[in-house]
Amino acid sequence: MAYVRAVLRLALFATVTVGSYLALVVIMPLRRSNRLHLPLRNRIYRTWARTLGRVAGMRVRCEGTPPRGAFFLVVNHVSYMDVMLIASHVDAAFVAKADLRAWPILGHIFSSADTIFINRERRRDVVRVSQLLDGALARGLGVLVFPEGTATRGAEIRRFKTSLLQLPAERGLPVSYATIHYRTPAGCPPAHQVVCWWGDAPFLPHIWKLMQLPFFEAVLRFGDEPIHHPDRKELARRLRAAMRERFEPIP
User: Fold this and answer.
1) Domain residue spans in the chain?
2) How far apart are CA 6 and CA 10, in angstroms?
3) Nearest-CA neighbor of 223 among 24, 120, 73?
4) Taking burial as the number of CB atoms within 10 A of a residue's CB, which of 50, 73, 158, 171 is the most buried?
5) Hey, is 96 helix, strand or coil?
6) Nearest-5° angle of CA 135, CA 27, CA 141?
7) Under 8 Å between Cβ of 174 and 227
8) What's the CATH code, domain 2-246?
């Protein structure tokens, strides 16, 4: 049964993703008109995220109020499922590692949905990415940064990489925050093994195991009040402290 479930889910994953990508391509000529393009982009991307979450068996609970409009949001990062979880609740341009651009199909849909790719091995790339973040905010789109800089097993909130927080620090922009938690049902492998994707785990074997789960729980907790500070390192410290108060380690 688990094998059949995984096959069907992966087939639906591919179908929905290709369909969503084609929809984003169709509306691409409207990019010159932000008033027309942005609402359609948001609807397609959110529908894609919610549908894939349901297909994967992700049972979602959202706590707190998601930010709206042009916002700056930071979230801990533990899995590729984070994208579906967050994008089903907020309309944002994500910052992602540059190598994701080369992923078949998904790389194209991420690019079409305003994902901002960063090469963290090149310090100068931070300047380019900050300009793109500024541009997304100017268009009325939220931006999302994973400040830990990598996916983890979900045992703790790691120290933040502060370079991308320079923009909100300089502009005096309030920064919203949220935390992610996953849990698998009794009798199944723990979430840090089959939901969290971290370290050197290969993607295909991992998603194959994830799709075999009957379901898994996902909790997205938004902070009560955004945080702002003119110094990026102090801003990072305060954000991390606030996130650690709400964070629930992943078993």
Assistant:
1) 2-246
2) 6
3) 73
4) 73
5) strand
6) 25
7) yes
8) 3.40.1130
